[in-house]
Specification:
12 strands; about 250 residues; globular; binds fe (ii) ion
Length: about 250
């Protein structure tokens, strides 16, 4: 069964080929984040935290650039990059001069973003052919570019890294991860999912698509747990495909 049908029939997550998705770019994307975390001075890092309202549906979703989330005790829980194509302008407007490695890092993220956006459009076109009444292609919000590439790194710890949740977006591509730990829940059953094999991604559905399709395409419950006894840093790369709200 093709990915479009899998999504429509709730057989998620499913594999999707993303032409142009390259292992070198994936490596550059996560090593760039590690380098940013280690080498960029803290005062400079703060300037990369950019707050731009993107979506009238989620006015609190203002986390472009690089942001940190802290957990219990004020310790860093995770650091993540949100890449959209206008990140270059947002950084330039703040008079942030990119070092060469930072430019190469963002360029790699841009290529991943482009490949995922093209594959998403193809996937959604196919979904429309099967289930035409929702006009999904017309709802893909490309102006401004709203799809978001997230590169994230968790501080090592045991137990839950991301508690179970549904994604807000329409369709999520899980692109790559350092090691296993991503799980989904189907009914009562929780399953740790195998890593995607580049150039394939693992895709699943979020709240926005469930709402647009009036429940016909259900969202998928998922989360991430540590599988390394708290030893290893976990990184992951994810693409959030977004539709225009009604
Ligand atoms: Fe998620």
């Amino acid at each position: 069964m093709g990915a479009a049908n899998s999504l429509l029939y709730g057989d998620v997550p499913c594999r999707l080929l993303v032409p142009g998705l390259r292992a070198e770019d994936i490596t550059a994307a996560h090593t760039g984040l590690f380098r940013f975390d280690m080498e960029t001075p803290t005062s400079e890092q703060h300037r990369w935290s950019i707050q731009v309202p993107r979506d009238p549906e989620f006015p609190d979703d203002i986390d472009d650039g690089v942001n940190r989330k802290t957990g219990h005790g004020g310790l860093d829980q995770k650091i993540f990059l949100h890449y959209r194509p206008d990140l270059w302008e947002l950084l330039a407007e703040r008079h942030i001069e990119l070092e060469l490695w930072q430019s190469e890092w963002l360029a790699a993220c841009g290529r991943i973003w482009q490949a995922c956006t093209a594959a998403l459009e193809e996937l959604v076109r196919e979904m429309d052919r099967t289930l035409g009444r929702f006009g999904l292609v017309d709802r893909l919000g490309n102006a401004p570019d709203n799809h978001c590439l997230r590169v994230l790194k968790y501080a090592p710890r045991t137990g839950s890294l991301a508690s179970g949740h549904y994604d807000r977006c329409g369709i999520t591509f899980r692109i790559a991860e350092s090691h296993s730990g991503f799980y989904t829940r189907h009914g009562w059953e929780q399953q740790v999912q195998p890593a995607p094999q580049t150039p394939e991604v693992s895709c699943f559905t979020g709240e926005q698509l469930e709402r647009i399709t009036e429940g016909a395409v259900p969202r998928l419950w998922h989360g991430a747990v540590d599988t390394t006894e708290g030893v290893a840093e976990r990184w992951a790369i994810v693409f959030f495909g977004k539709f225009r709200p009604k």
